[in-house]
Write a structure and sequence with these properties.
Helices cover 43% and strands 15% of the residues. It contains 3 helices and 4 strands. The protein has helices spanning 22-41, 59-94, 100-104; strands spanning 6-10, 16-21, 120-124, 128-133. It has a 4-stranded antiparallel beta sheet with strand order 1-2-4-3. A hairpin with a 5-residue loop joins strand 1 (6-10) and strand 2. Helix 1 runs antiparallel to helix 2 (59-94).
């Protein structure tokens, strides 16, 4: 199943560990690049691009602005969708042959951890990995 070829990491501030295969990582990386390209073509749509001047607008004006921005972003996504499918498929397939060091843009491979953590409850598919700490789960109901 290739479960030894996952990149996993704990999400900071949580006890959740997520992971993905090289193929899925490569496709997600490509999707991220394309999303950044859309953001560059449509400045001001991301929350971090919002100006302080927008805070001075009335609630109704802010809501209208958000609706317009969402519509513009959806249009950009719809326009990009036919072009993205083959790009993401290609990135996914190429991910099977690319070293982690190339995907992560680092000279060294990630550290291999075969020991595991007995405190984690884990689940995996051929492409994804999820684990939570058994000690942070809510108590069982009677």
């Amino acid at each position: 199943m290739g479960l030894d070829d996952f990149l996993t990491c704990r999400i900071p501030g949580t006890e959740v560990h997520l992971g993905m295969s090289r193929k899925l990582f490569a496709a997600c990386e490509r999707l991220h690049e394309e999303d950044l390209a859309i953001a560059r073509r449509t400045p001001g749509l991301r929350a971090e691009d919002q100006s302080a001047a927008a805070q001075d607008l009335s609630d109704a004006a802010q809501e209208e602005q958000r609706l317009t921005q969402r519509r513009m972003f959806r249009e950009q996504q719809e326009e990009a969708r036919p072009r993205l499918r083959p790009l993401l498929r290609d990135a996914y397939e190429r991910g099977a042959t690319i070293d982690w060091s190339d995907l992560l843009r680092r000279p060294q491979e990630p550290e291999l951890d075969l020991e595991g953590d007995e405190g984690l409850l884990e689940a995996a598919t051929p492409e994804t990995y999820l684990a939570v700490s058994r000690y942070d789960l809510p108590p069982a109901r009677p």
